[in-house]
Amino acid sequence: TEVCTVRHQGKFADYAECPQYVFADARTSIHMPYLQGEKEIEPKLRAFEYLGGNRVRLTYEWHVNDTLEEDYHCFVHFLHEGTGHAEQIAFQQDHELPKPTSQWRKGETIIDGPYEVTFPDDAQDYYDITIGLFRGGRLSLKGLSDGRNRILIGRLRVEREGGEITRVTLGDVQDMAKRAAAARANFRAHLNPPGTWVDFGTVATDGSVKVNREPDRLVVFPYPRDRSFRVTLDLKALAPKAVPGRVRVRALAARTLKELGETPHAFQGGRLTFKVGRPGAGRYLVTW
User: Which domain does 237 fall in, by range?
Assistant: First the structure.
């Protein structure tokens, strides 16, 4: 068994080979379904004003570069780690939005507020302001997330004397944002440009592909399956018994395995080349 990440001619790529299969990834794309739900909508704190005592005035804004088909509700959670609450919620300021989210359009900035917020009578020295949208569940939004689909937009620092609040100031969350960004894994750091061709010998591709070895055929799985890219297989290494004049490449549907027909291919010097990405196809059979 061989597994490696290599740097070939300045290109990072991944390769694995064992008796059952071969895997090759030219790193020209990365499939991250857990990010696909994130909406290009970013909430921010637009304005802050201390009103005296335990009262502040807050205005939010929503930078919209996406669309929502349904109307969502807004929640605002003021957090402190000492609350004992499972989500560190000290108090909330949930409210209806000035414009239904189904009517938001790309390029808009929605001004939300101002709102007068009253702090509870406790002894906390700060509150982190987090905001988001929910409709049954919380929507994943752009911004500094706390990991619970809440976006951190500010920190209120509370000064007290004799148990009474004497001053509230707006703290800087940029340091928190920088620490979070530094800790966040950048899976796109070593991606190659689309179309980058990487030749591992046994398999060459400008995409990502797994090739299962079976007694009388090869089963080729492209990743992602709906993306068009090329695959070259060294049949001398992968299928020594293959007869060049009898080689066929057929596409099968992703779920039903229904045959979708022949896939055009070329054969040269013992190497088979064809293109994947046929609509609805999930795998390709190479038979002889």
Answer: 2-30+191-287
Taking the whole predicted model, whether its pTM rises above 0.70 is answered as: no
Neighbours of 239 (CB within 10 A): 22
What tokens does 199 get?
């030749």
> Which amino acid would we find at residue 107?
G
Q: Which SS3 state, helix, strand or coil, does residue 126 take? A: strand
CA distance 6 to 143: 34
Nearest to 126 by CA among 84, 92, 160: 160
Contacting residues for 283 by C-beta, under 8 A, at least 6 apart: 219, 220, 221, 222, 225, 251, 252, 254, 257
Long-range contacts, 169-177 (Cβ 8 Å, 24+) = 169/50, 170/45, 170/48, 171/126, 173/144, 176/144, 176/152, 177/144, 177/152
127 within 8 A of 78, measured Cβ to Cβ? yes
**CATH at 269:** 2.60.220
Between the two ends of the chain, the Cα-to-Cα distance in Å is: 26
Number of domains in the chain: 2
Per-residue pLDDT of the chain (288 residues; tens, 9 = 90+): 888 888 877 889 999 999 999 999 999 987 655 445 689 999 999 999 999 999 999 999 999 999 999 999 999 999 998 888 889 999 999 999 999 999 999 999 999 999 999 988 777 899 999 999 999 899 999 999 888 999 999 999 999 888 888 999 998 777 666 666 655 556 667 889 999 999 999 999 999 999 999 999 999 999 988 899 999 999 999 999 998 889 999 999 998 999 999 999 999 888 999 999 999 999 999 999
Q: Residue 178 and residue 87: Cα distance in Å, rounded?
A: 22
